[in-house]
Amino acid sequence: MQIAIAGYGQEGRAVHRYLRRQEEETGVKCDITVCDQNPELEVPEDVWAQLGEGYLEGLDSCDLVYRSPGIRPDTLQYLNPGLDGNRITTATNQFFTACPSGNIIGVTGTKGKGTTTTLIARILTTAGQQAHVGGNIGTPALDLLGDIGPEDWVVLELSSFQLFDIDRSPHIGVCLMIAPDHLDWHTDMEEYVDAKSHIFALQETCDIAVYNADNAYASRLAEKSPGRKIAFGASGEADVRGTDEGIYTDDQKVIAAADIGLRGPHNRENVCAATGAAIAALRESLPVGDCAGVHPPPGTQGSVAAAIRDFHGLEHRLEYVGNANGVSFYNDSFSTNPAPTIAAIRSFSEGQVLILGGSPKGADFEELAREIAGSPVKHAVLTGEEAERLQAALEQAGFTAHSWGGDRMPGLVAEAVSRAETGDVVLLSPACASFDMFADYKDRGQQFKQAVAALNNQ
Q1: Torsion angle in degrees (nearest 10) through CA of 15, 17, 21, 27
Q2: pLDDT in tens, 326-352
Q3: Would you tell me how many other CB atoms lie within 10 Å of the CB of residue 373?
Q4: Which of 47, 61, 65 is nearest to 3 (CA)?
Q5: Which of 193, 160, 184, 186 lies closest to 362, judged by CA?
Q6: Residue 230: what are its φ and ψ, rounded to 5°?
Q7: Domains of the chain by range and CATH?
Q8: d(Cα 209, Cα 212) in Å, to the nearest integer?
Q9: Cα–Cα–Cα angle for 102, 108, 111, nearest 5°?
Q10: Distance of alpha carbon 248 from alpha carbon 246, whole angstroms
């Protein structure tokens, strides 16, 4: 059997490991070709390599092509006219086929996926369930297979790239807020939303759709599910509500707002989503009689509240870095489009100096600029390829307190510090991708933390 792995990043490597494990279990051999744009890539000795220019060509004769999330299936077919669509698959599709448990929870949305995915798993494990986290966060899903039992729960973060051609929906689908993103990959907003819709569209009547009732896109997508609906949001009609007082399931308080470990009103939405999904899972796993309720099962409310209280977020997502000379520093490098940056700005009442900019993703900055103009942001330090467009949007909104910070993180932090006063917040929330100056958002966030640490060593 001839198999190509198109793209040899984290998921592509997991596919290779999976295929070799399958060979050992079944005895069926396969010839694997690794295809990657990096001509210097080191590949295992047991595969063929097709690297650099033209790396996606000549795959017509393959029995199966595993595409990595960054590669569109229609690109593969355009470059390989003889390649049928049914011979293109993904690691995500293979995981759904091979997973020994049907208890799969999938989380998608434009922002908050990683936070919500992790919190769902924390709630389940705190309540005594076995839960595994993977997908677009942490461990590739195929690498989890050997550890999953038939009654375990699997919580996957699923991007639009992974959902684009998925052939089944998770048992519990979760859709957070949706806003324009990845329009450098998707042809338009309609295609982006359509990819997200697969979190619900292939569900059955026994499945569950958890959705953001305050977001028009998410509400529209939930209608595609024939399963039970659980709405979350701020309105009184939501099954799981987040208010200034706390998180409620119907009229029952799950946790007081002051006890929530995550900062910001946008994280209140994430907590509501995680609460709704985790309670639905717990009501199926425990003998409560009525699986359709939204309250925590008897004996679990303390565990649900404890997990929410003790979870303070993920690295590079509104991560508190430290304080230097009375100024607090927060790393929100994961915010690579305007929507999460707007949410980050709204998380602080203090004066803010915002580090903004990076490489393009096709975003429109008008709404972000208006938000900045009407917010406690005192100054914006601009950087990267998008600095010019950001400057134009800010000035159009009447915000002129901006400056160029250079193209190195120490200089960006130094410029931000020079604009900040005691009691202010310096917030790295770029609203752009990072590939013009950094390896990825993690590298960008790590360099920010190192630059902040250096301030206290001066």
Answers
A1: 70
A2: 999 999 999 999 988 998 999 899 999
A3: 17
A4: 65
A5: 184
A6: -125, 115
A7: 2-89 (3.40.50.720), 92-310 (3.40.1190.10), 319-455 (3.90.190.20)
A8: 10
A9: 150
A10: 6
